[in-house]
Structures are given as C-alpha cells and as structure tokens.
Protein 1
Amino acid sequence: MSIIQNTEIYEKCENESHEELGREESSEDESNEDETNREELNESESSEDELLTASSDSNYSFYPSFLSMVADTKKYVLGLAVLFSISIAIGYIFGMHNPSSIETIIEGFADIIIPEHTSFELMNIIFFNNLEVAAIAIFLGCFFAIIPIFVVFFNGIIIGIVAESFIREAGLLFLVVGLLPHGIIEIPMILFSAGIGCKMGVGALQVIIRKKTARSYLHDFVTATWIFVLIILPLLLAAAFIESYVTAFLLEQMF
C-alpha cells in the first residue's frame, strides 16, 4: 500500500507541476501577444503619421501656406523690429558725434540722386533699390538668417544717421513729413521680408538636422516667392511712388 500511495502522490505532484508549467507558458504567451499587439499598434500609428506627413508635403495650397508663413514669421519680425530700433539709435548717436562727415555723405548722395533725375526716374531708382534689399533679405536668408539680420541692422543705421541730420538741419517736423508717408509702408515691408528670410534660414537648419523635410522647405520657398511677388513688390512700388511724388510735394509746400 505504501508503494501505491507513494506512486499516487508522485503522479499527483507531477501533474500539479505540469499544470503550473502550463499556466506559466500560457501567461508568457499572453504577455508576448500583448507586446506584439502594442508593437503593431505603434507601427500602425507611425505609418499613419508618415502618410499624413507625406500627404501634407505633396498637397500644396497657397492660402493655408501663406497664413502659416505669416504666423511663423511674426516672432522673427518682432525680434527684427527691436534690432531695427537699436540700430536706429546707434546711427543717430553716431551722427551726433560725427556731423561733418555725415553731412558730406548725405550731400554727396543728394547731388547724385536728386538733380539728375525726374520724379519718375527717382521712383524707379527707389523702387528697385528697395526691391533688391527685400529680395536679398528673403532669398539669401537660407544662409542661417545672417543676411536678413544684417540688412535690418544696416538700414537702421542709415535711417538713424539721416534722422539725426534732418532734425539738426530742419527740425523734427521735416523728418516726420520726409519719412512717415512712405516709411509707414516701406519699413514694415523690409522687416517682413527679413522675417521671412529668418524663417527660411531656420528652416534650412531644420532640414540639415532632419527636423524638416526638403519637400516642406521647398513649399516654404514657393510661398515666400509668391508673397514677394503678390504683396511685397506692389507695396514697395506704392512706397516708392509716395516718396517720389507725395513726400517731395509735401516737403516743397511746407518747407
């Protein structure tokens, strides 16, 4: 009897051991299945994101791209406006401490530009000069935004120097009348152009470090080109017309 009992006990323990092993294997299988399901879900979500990105890259629409460009450019324009104000102050202070050399530069510039050209010719000179500045700021901004920052800083220095000379020679009213009518259009367009250039520079860096696709950057470039042609160009033309005709007329009548 003892041998039979021992045999039964052994078989019972062996069965329990097999059952426990089966439960462990079943638990491991379920865990592996859950992990597999999670991996498949992650892969599915990743593929959906890639499809959405590819779809957004391949489908280009100007109006949404324009709104996105304006929204993204706003922060750069604000920063450039601060830099512009600082550079104007620097130019003004420089003019105060170097009046004779500044007067020589301004008089030489006036002798070259004003007497030898009609109002229409002067308008063309001003327009194409400002258009070139805006184009350089936008399309050379891809070099990490260095060029548009320099454009804003340099133009601020020039305006500060001219402002100091005008105020010293003719008074503050002369400066306001001589700068405000066209400057209210021209200056924002230059800042806007430089802001777009800064966005293009940041975008180029993002392409290099692979945080932005080349196709998306190309879309930004196309949008910047359309903004330049449809918005900046005509407004700079309007500013050049105002400066050549309206500002000149006001200065002639008032002073």
Note: The chain is about 90% helix and 0% strand.
Protein 2
Amino acid sequence: MGREINKIFRKFIQKFYILLVFQHICREIQQTLRIMITIPQVVEKIVSAQPFLAEALVEGLINVSSLARKIQNQVEQSVKKPVKIGAIIMALNRLAPNLEVKINPGLKEVITNVGDIIVRSHLVDFTYKNSNTLIEKHTELLKSIGPNQEFFYTMVQGVFESNLVVSSSLQAKVEEAFSGEYLVSRSQQLSSVTLKLPATNSQQLGFYYFILKNIAWAGINIQEVVSTTNEFTLVVNDADIDKTFSVLKNMGNH
C-alpha cells in the first residue's frame, strides 16, 4: 500500500512540476510577444521625433544596422527588457514605407500646384535695431517712394530688429531715411525668388520643410526669408540665384 501511495505521489509531483514549467514557458512567450508588439511602436516614436532621420530612412540613405545599434539603449529602456539588434532592424525596415505615407500625405499635390516663380535681382538687405522712431521713418520712406510697382520693397519687424530688402536703386533713399537709426548689417549683390503658393499650403504639414530641405541639399545659403499667407520669398546671393530657381522649379519632380 505504501509503495502504491509513493508511486502516485511521485507521478503527482512530476505532473505538477511539468505544469509549473509549462506556465513559466507561457509567461515567457507572453512577455516576448508583448516586447515584439512594443518594439515597432518605440522605434517609430524615436524615428518620428527626428524629421531629418525619418526622411533619410525613407530615402534609404541610412545604414539600418548602424541606426539600430545607436537606438538600442533607448528601445531597451522603453520596453524595460533586453532587445536584440535584429528585432530593431526588422522594426526599422517595416517602418520605412509607413513613414513615407505619413511624411508626404498630399505634399506632392501641393508642391505641384505652386504658382508663378518670380525672380528679382539687384537687391540690398538692411537690418536696423528697433527704436521708437523706426516705424515713423519707414512710413515716410514709403510715402516718398509712392505706389511704384517696379521697386522691390519688403520690411519685417522683429522683436529687437527690423529688416528691409529693397531694390538697389532705393539704397540711397533708405540710407537717408534711416540715417539716425542703428544699422546692424547691410548686404548687397542679392537676388530673390518668390513663390505664389496654393491656398492649402498652410494646412500641409512639412510644406516649408520640403522647400528648405531642397535648398539646403543644393548647398544654397539663404540670406533672408520673407513669407505671407500665399507668398514665400527667398533672398540669396546673386551667385546662387540660377541654382535656387532651378531647385524650386523642379521640386514637383522629386
């Protein structure tokens, strides 16, 4: 009788041990599944927080293995578990097509609907320190110029400085009108390119980023930016005006 009881007891212990092992394996599988679900979310959050990184990933300009190694610590901290490089690489490869959709929703349509491109040359850029008399002198200068559409004239007032970009033929008038003001800087031999924008530009995420990215990638230095609701003007050095026009004209082909 005693032997039978011991035999039954041993079988019970064996089954109980097997059950514990099975439960442990199930918990490990569940944790692994949770990590696998979380890794793509964490990777997307890390990449999406850096627009240049996201676009470079979409364009295939980044070594995915190197990027995976670089963000491995961030991913592991977020999921609170060790994460293999291979899992991060897989998440990055799957993420790229989704990012392309998110980065460019409707952007190409807006870019291709950009209107006329207007080029002006022989410009001078003035920057004055703000004062109590600056606006008054600006008003007097506009009155002296009159409604002459042949001149290029823009003024932007910042918190501490005001900027004027004008046709070089107005340089003497500007210097005379603002003779008592503090001149911060003056740049000559400049040209501008003005884009007439579609009305939907202000609702399109990444519109200005797309323009400035193409300008930067072409190695063009921007002297000034002037923007209204439906106009966008870049002021560049005379030497860069042809390249600037070409980049802006061909944006819709990218």
Note: Residues 136 and 177 are 10 Å apart (CA to CA).
